[in-house]
Design goal:
Structural class: mainly beta
Order of helices and strands: EEEEEEEEEEEEEE
Number of strands: 14
Number of domains: 1
Shape: elongated
Length: 172
């Protein structure tokens, strides 16, 4: 292990020369937190008839709270509950440092072998974002119901509840 200092810099290396600390690397500074609570999103429903396709296409920020204006990073964890839909429900706490994919649904999922309409037209993705002095839960949801053979079809994504324990901050 070695320790090196020079004007405005410290570097610590491991025995094999790997840098383990360098003051030239930015460090995460928490400006707000812990931020605790929950947010419930609305139910989304896509419908389709032989004459019309009313899909859902949402990209919106749900405001959670005000944070320091310099905050641009979110760290922490969240837990998701919902009445149904989504393979990852009630499986524990997830890392809040990226995008959570709640739903990926192909066309005609019950058929399994239908490749004539292969595709993934329905997705629901959620990301915690700190920007402009606010903490948001960004919702990106695209739902498309299966083409009907007669009458109509629907695809409903029940509103999920996100319980969160977060820290907002910036790399300085």
């Amino acid at each position: 292990m070695s320790f090196f200092t020079s004007a405005n810099r410290m570097v610590v290396t491991d025995v094999d020369g790997t840098t383990v600390f360098d003051t030239n690397e930015r460090l995460f500074t928490v400006t707000n937190g812990p931020l605790q609570g929950s947010i419930t999103l609305p139910t989304r429903t896509a419908t389709r008839t032989t004459a019309a396709n009313n899909s859902v296409n949402v990209n919106t920020n749900h405001t959670i709270t005000a944070v320091n204006a310099s905050a641009n990073t979110v760290r922490g964890a969240f837990f998701v509950t919902a009445p149904s839909r989504g393979a990852l429900l009630n499986l524990g706490w997830f890392n809040a440092s990226g995008t959570y994919i709640h739903l990926l649904e192909p066309r005609f999922p019950a058929l399994g072998t239908d490749t004539t309409n292969a595709g993934l037209p329905s997705i629901a993705a959620y990301t915690f974002v700190a920007s402009g002095g606010s903490l948001y839960l960004n919702e990106q949801c695209r739902l498309e119901s299966n083409p009907p053979t007669g009458g109509s079809t629907t695809l409903t994504l029940p509103g999920a509840t996100f319980q969160y324990y977060l820290f907002a901050g910036a790399w300085v």
